[in-house]
Amino acid sequence: MAEVRLEGVHKLFGSVVAVEDFNLSIGSSEFVVFVGPSGCGKSTTLRMLAGLEDVTSGSISIDGRAVNNVHPKDRDIAMVFQNYALYPHLNVFDNISFGLRAKRLPKDEIAKRTNEAAEILGLGDLLKRRPGELSGGQKQRVAMGRAIVRKPKVFLFDEPLSNLDAKLRHKMRAEMKILHQRVQTTTVYVTHDQVEAMTLADRIVIMNEGHIEQVGTPDEVYKHPASQFVASFIGSPAMNFATGRIEASGKTMSLRTDSGTSLDLAGCGVAEGTMVQLGFRPEHMELADTAKPARGHVSIAGSITVVEPMGHETVLTCDAGFGEIVGKYEGERRFQPGETVKFHIRADRLHYFDLKTGLRI
Ligand SMILES: Nc1ncnc2c1ncn2[C@@H]1O[C@H](COP(=O)(O)OP(=O)(O)OP(=O)(O)O)[C@@H](O)[C@H]1O
Ligand SMILES: [Mg+2]
What we know:
- The protein has two domains: about 5-235, P-loop containing nucleotide triphosphate hydrolases (Rossmann fold, 3-Layer(aba) Sandwich), CATH 3.40.50; about 240-355, CATH 2.40.50.140.
- Helix content is about 25%, strand content about 35%.
- The chain is built from eight helices and 20 strands.
- The chain has helices at about 40-50, 90-100, 105-120, 135-150, 165-185, 195-200, 220-225, 230-235, and strands at about 5-15, 15-25, 30-35, 55-60, 65, 75-80, 155-160, 185-190, 205-210, 210-215, 240-250, 250-255, 260-265, 275-280, 285-290, 295-310, 315-320, 325-330, 340-345, 350-355.
- α2 runs parallel beside α4 and α4 (about 135-150) packs parallel to α5 (about 165-185).
- The site of magnesium ion has 3 residues, from α1.
- Magnesium ion (MG) binds near residues 42, 43 and 158.
């Protein structure tokens, strides 16, 4: 267990800025997830933490000790990658204990740690098998076992589950959580999957083009996204947006959208004339029978273009005039393309972002 701190970290590859002014303090035992689109600098940041990549400027410290110039093997960090790179000719026991044997630990200590890790990961019955005789999930667990036995100060994971099918991913995700609750090792976990980020993280770091957009708990980034980028990245189906200008007539505020339609906004606190992106989540749109919304609600109508029945809910894609919106409906009603539907949204669930800066207003 250890604290990890990155201060003003930059990474350039020639003229390519891979990571820009990265500042983050990770608490002891914390599980932090880096999430963001492909190429945003997640792996590069992780590799700098591991010492596999030099830092162009800035500092990295582990438990208060600057590690910029410390060799990877002396940082007391264990990293698990997407491809688990097991030794095909060694059995599970020997794969897990490989690093300990290289360190020439006493035999009984190696056996003790390896058996402990195998027990935590449910690999006890598979110790004699070779990687070729294991499923993808089992191989992934062996790779994790190899990291656990080293009892490192910090675990680094780079998309460790992305080679697995959806069902196994889900199962391994739950196992990652249990594992962390048991060993409590400070963890930095990289993924481009926002669901994985939301479900695993104590805190999420959302990255975009080399910089941090927001750091927060899953609840904070979902409820109070700091930017339109975060708002569109977190949540599934993604948040809906309408672009336009805030207008006032008497006490009534409205959004004049680019396409000329007008949306009445109940209790909007944004100044008249501001160009905004108005955001609202599919799960906050309640299907309604009337166009007139209840107090403190906003009404949006749309013509259904796609109906996706999911069993427990139906996802409706609609043309709302100002653009396409996606709504969710939990209930028995059936829908047809072309049908007009109305949604009511609580005004306190609307998000306003400055059109120019993308920042939350
Ligand atoms: N060795 C390298 N030489 C030059 N450019 C690099 C190198 N490694 C990474 N980059 C660039 O740095 C940026 C960040 O890459 P990085 O691998 O950190 O992204 P990522 O967020 O991990 O993406 P992904 O989700 O696809 O794995 C990208 O623009 C990438 O092309
Ligand atoms: Mg990567």
